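task queued by scheduler; priority normal; single chain, no ligands, no partner chains; default sampling; output format set to structure tokens
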Amino acid sequence: MPLLDKFAKYPLLFGPSPISKFDNLSKALGKNVNIFAKREDRNSGLAFAGNKLRKFEYIVPDILAGDYTHIVSIGGIQSNQTLMTVATACKIGLKAVTVQENWVPIPEAEKATYDKVGNIEASRIMGGDVRLVPDGFDIGLRNWLF
């Protein structure tokens, strides 16, 4: 029995991620080159954020067994992890709180819109309680409270 079969699983994926051949890129790179990509962005209908959803298949059974109302996650402003947290919470009927920190340098030209587009906007559209904090990336404790 495979090791993961020992754990409860809540199905969130369509199945194995599809493999796509990139014909144009292969052709551009020359003779005898074939480029393929495992398309984690196409393995579910939940926000297209790829492999971040796989772990939720194993976390959700414990969440559903508990008396929880929210899922909380922390990540960078455009984090796929926080996006999938909100999408998963929506799927199972819970609320999501995401704490979005400044983990990567933002080009000056993007500073006015970086926290208003992409993954963070999708999280807001899905009803996520998105909280922007000025902290940068580290593994320390946080001083702010909810």
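post-processing summary
- The chain has a mean pLDDT of 89.
- The helical segments are 23-29, 56-65, 80-92, 118-125.
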